[in-house]
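call fold target=DUF4037 domain-containing protein
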Amino acid sequence: MSDHVTGIQLSQKFYEDYIVPRLSTAMPALSYASAIVGPGSEVLGFDTPMSRDHDWGPRVQIFLREDDVSLSDAIIEALLMAAPSTFNGFSLKVDQTLVTTVSIYYGRRLGLSPVRLLEGLDPLDWLTIPSQTLAELTSGTVFRDDIGELTVVRDHLRYYPQDVWLFLMASIWNRIAQEEHLMPRAGFVGDELGAGLIASRLIRDVMSLCFLMERRYAPYPKWFGSAFRQLTCANELLPYLKAAQDAKEWQEREQALSTTYQIVAQKHNELQVTEPIEAKVKFFFDRPFSVIDGNRFAEALISKIQDSSLRKLAAFRLGGIDQISDNTDFRAIQERFQSPTGEKNPLRTFFDHFIQTGKR
């Protein structure tokens, strides 16, 4: 097989040439859905030949109706019968084929019980889910959906609801406001290393904001830059982002970041979600440091949020899980603490408690 075959292409062929014939013979009346979603560079379309050294190969997930879960073992047996060791030249591990239900699989990934998943996510639930997870669950390819549930859930998760979208953009503008003046201040006293670190954080925030503005889920760090290059704004912004990242002195960084801020501010205005805001940098008080004053954009966005819980939470400038922490294990908290009885995960409980009792 060609070295250029992608994981999606291989898995589709595996589904069509291996899964379908065997299930059609063993269980011709079975209704099911099949897809490749979830973890894996191939799901996001970023796999290369290097991806093949682990967890890559012909694979699909099979989703059953709730009433057909008892057939799981029989399905695996049908797929394992006289199974070859390879498929189209790649190692085949049929025993690792996931056979489950949409509510169980998506509920586990989202940190929701199957019952709560079917009820739908509320605004605060969205804040507990990393954008990487949402990208994994809405990307990939659905090969078949007799039962309809997979399509419904993926459509529901296609992108953040309006109020959540506004809240997250406001949260990133607030992050920019918190640090935009710190980069030149550090550089001004000769701390170029510190200024460079702060600049990198600001660059990441700007890029994250761009994903939100273009209604795309941002992937985790390995593919963050690759996915950013696919955004409409990338060609315009990349020269300035790279200049800010590569600058040797803080003045160069400031100039590149200032241009970046003004471009992104103009793109905010083009969204027409708030009244137009002046898209020009200015000095930070009496100090000769250029800032865009991200608070202006944050406050304007918050004023457009209708959901009362999000409006109250926005007053504390906490953001969602992507803005709160970049710790990999913490960001998986919604999966690690899922309760089959419907209890909320710790982060959601924190948000609820903060809204009820927190004071700014």
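return ok
The radius of gyration is 23 Å. Strands lie at 32-36, 61-64, 86-87, 90-91, 98-101, 141-145, 282-284, 287-291.
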